[in-house]
Design brief:
single chain, Growth Hormone, Chain: A
């Protein structure tokens, strides 16, 4: 039994609860706004007279800009602390998301989604860093899974909002973006009550004593090699995740190219259910990573994804499509449950604002063309095969990259000696 496993469970104090709740809600609202596009891009395309292939690039540009946000806000957070950059970031992306409701044409919406990607890129890295620095280290896996579940919870909320606002009330897609500002403001209020990260404050003192710069820390050869490795791992992860999510609502509603031909309401209810599966998977496998380690649970989730692909992609009834998608979201997002903890534990203290977020978002850049590729393949080989090839390849890549990597489960962030020991065994 490891030392971390022997540590008693600690209840979160008010500062830790506020930090976690704000990060969870911020990430949830990022996903809410992102998946609104996934759910309504066919409707927006019809309004603007734009093809589905071109509309798919609204998600691509958001993903492409996320590394810029992760870099800008991350570097700022490593210099001045986590709190102020996070507050500025949530104000920025809340306003941009709200303005999407008033876009007069595709070009303006494209620019707004570009800007939103910058804000979305800043949110995950800083929120995850602040949370992982504050929660008890022997329970990081649990809070990591719960935090990552916020992404699926945001997707679930977007699906419910679509059902209520568009399907039931018959209102325009614009209302969905207008309403998104309310929970974002709640996140801002919570975040304003959070104290600065004690780990960051201690690290700044150590950097001054040793006269070490952030640049020097990053350009250590082992840290750079680990950075490249984590970017590749995140590319595989994002390809696996987006491959199972982004095109699926369109596949469920499509009547050609092997689509399931379901009604919009039925397809959206399936999205609600499979996101419940994703939330449960994140929490379950994230918690298990505190016992089994980050690597074992990641490999388990990705490996269980493979045999579920036929049920997920080739079923012919709503029931089995719902079952297959819920199970595959349990496994793929379950594998994600350990990632906030894993990336932050593999990051040097001095660049934790920058390092996890940028590796994650650069991986997203590589995966950014997943939806356009799937959409382009669908007319030629059908939606089921387009999803099968992309998801299966990504899951295998996740398994192999994780197996050959390292982990630093429950590492003490206040012990630079322990982190230096991990740095000598990067990949």
């Amino acid at each position: 039994m490891t030392m971390a496993a022997q540590l008693p469970r600690q209840r979160l104090n008010s500062d830790q609860r506020n930090a976690f709740a704000a990060s969870l809600l911020g990430w949830m609202m990022d996903a809410f706004d992102y998946f609104l596009i996934v759910l309504v891009y066919a409707d927006i395309g019809a309004d603007f007279g734009v093809s589905l292939e071109k509309m798919a690039y609204l998600t691509t540009i958001t993903l492409l800009m996320r590394p810029i946000g992760a870099y800008l806000f991350g570097i700022w957070a490593d210099k001045v602390g986590r709190r102020i950059p996070l507050i500025v970031d949530v104000c920025f992306y809340s306003l941009v998301g709200f303005l999407c409701a008033f876009a007069p044409n595709f070009t303006v919406l494209f620019v707004l989604r570009l800007l939103y990607g910058i804000g979305m890129g800043g949110e995950w890295g800083l929120g995850a860093a602040l949370t992982m620095e504050k929660v008890p280290r022997n329970r990081r896996g649990f809070y990591s899974g719960l935090l990552q579940a916020g992404y699926s919870a945001g997707y679930l909320l977007a699906s419910l909002a679509f059902l209520l606002v568009v399907s039931a009330a018959g209102l325009s897609w614009r209302w969905l973006f207008a309403l998104s500002i309310i929970p974002a403001l709640i996140s801002l209020i919570l975040r304003s009550r959070v104290r600065e990260s004690e780990v960051w404050e201690t690290t700044q003192t150590n950097l001054k004593i040793t006269q070490t710069s952030i640049r020097t820390v990053f350009f250590n050869g082992k840290i750079v090699r680990r950075f490249i490795y984590l970017v590749l791992l995140m590319a595989a992860f994002n390809w696996m995740s987006h491959g199972t999510q982004d095109i699926y609502p369109t596949f469920l509603k499509a009547t050609d190219d092997g689509g399931a031909g379901l009604s919009p309401a039925t397809a959206t209810w399936i999205a609600v259910i499979y996101n419940v599966g994703a939330i449960v998977g994140c929490v379950v496998l994230g918690s298990l990573s505190d016992r089994w380690g980050r690597k074992a649970t990641i490999i388990l989730g990705a490996a269980l994804t493979l045999p579920l692909i036929p049920l997920f992609a080739f079923s012919s009834t709503a029931f089995w499509l719902c079952a297959g998608s819920a199970l595959i979201q349990f496994t793929t997002q379950g594998a994600w449950g350990a990632i906030p903890a894993h990336l932050n534990e593999m990051s040097p203290n001095a660049i934790r604002g920058f390092y996890p977020g940028v590796t994650y978002q650069l991986g997203n850049v590589i995966a950014a063309f997943n939806l356009p590729i799937q959409q382009a393949l669908a007319p030629h080989i059908g939606y089921p095969l387009a999803m099968t090839f992309t998801v299966a390849g990504a899951a295998v890549a996740v398994i192999l990259l994780t197996a050959f990597g390292r982990q630093a489960k429950a590492i003490d962030f206040t012990s630079e000696e322990k982190l230096a020991e991990v740095s000598t065994n990067v990949v």
